Amino acid sequence: DSYLEEAATKEQLGRLLGDEAPDLLIAASHGMAFDLGDPRQREHQGAILCQDWPGSPELVRRPHWFAAEDLLDGARLDGRVVVLFCCHGMGSPAIDELTAVIGQKPPQIADASFVARLPQRLLARGALAVVGHVDRALTIAGTWDGIEAQPQVFLDLGIQLMRGDPVGWATERLGQFFGTHAGHMNEKWQTHALSQEVDPDEFTVQWSATKNARNFALLGDPAVRIRLPGQD
Predict the structure, then answer these.
(1) Where does residue 37 rank: exposed (0-12), middle (13-18), buried (19+ CB within 10 A)?
(2) What is the DSSP letter of 222?
(3) How far lies 39's CA from each of 32, 34, 110, in Å?
(4) What share of residues in the chain are helix, strand, coil (percent, to 5)?
(5) I want to staple 131 with a disulfide (CB 3.0 to 4.6 A). Which of 41, 50, 83, 159 is the partner?
(6) What is the pLDDT, as a whole number, of residue 199?
(7) Span 21-42, average pLDDT
(8) Would you say residue 3 has pLDDT above 60?
(9) If you ran DSSP here, which 8-state letter would residue 129 be given?
(10) CA 134 to CA 202: how far, in whole Å?
(11) How far apart are CA 142 and CA 150, in angstroms?
């Protein structure tokens, strides 16, 4: 089942993380991000922005995002697997590597690196595994050299999970995705070291894509798999 556009409301997400919880839930949206020192950062960083938001950045309000505290008290997610494709869905580093400049101290975005509250609460309510992204999740995560869309890596993850592969094995595809980007990044470094021409825009795209692809993480048991029809 898919819930897209006007159907992707906070209320609907609450049902899917409550009484109507499927064995596998994949949520893709914006993730909430708060500045260093904001009292909401530890509890709400990585919360899922829902379709209730009217669309303008200055109009984001608390009723528009689904945070850990929005899980119903009696919600049970026993045996479920949840995938969160959103900024800070799994957590945040203390420093901002994506905007770091060589030779300069990278900007600090949190007092310390931390795990987002929502995946912690999902595991506490019985989910066996949560897959998500640390730091901001750039749209470049689904592109190849910033030009050609490459959604297959994410489709493969969902397909493997739905056919009953262990979560740890399914997420190996994300590791391969990072390895491929890292290889291309290394080639560009070598080209630069040999004093050959390197396009700065292309270099920036590859740098961002490599950092972004590296930051997917799994919380929970990598050996678990979703229950297929006919299985006990």
Answers:
(1) exposed
(2) T
(3) 13, 9, 11
(4) 40, 15, 45
(5) 83
(6) 72
(7) 94
(8) yes
(9) E
(10) 24
(11) 5
For CA atoms 113, 208, 118, 60, the dihedral sign is positive
Residue 211 has which token pair? 């950092």
Average pLDDT estimate for 102-111:
84
| Closest C-alpha to 183, from 195, 171, 175 | 175
Q: Are 153 and 128 in contact (CB under 8 A)?
A: no
> What tokens does 97 get?
């590597």
Res. 144: pLDDT tops 90: no
Count of positions (residues) in the chain? 232
The pLDDT tens digits for 218-228 are 999 999 998 77
Better-predicted residue by pLDDT, 83 or 213: 83
129 alpha carbon, distance to own chain's centre: 14
CA 46/CA 129 separation, integer angstroms: 17
Give the integer Cα–Cα distance in Å for 11 and 16: 9
Query: HSE on the CB side for 142, CA within 13 Å?
Result: 11
Q: What is the mean pLDDT of residues 154-169?
A: 89
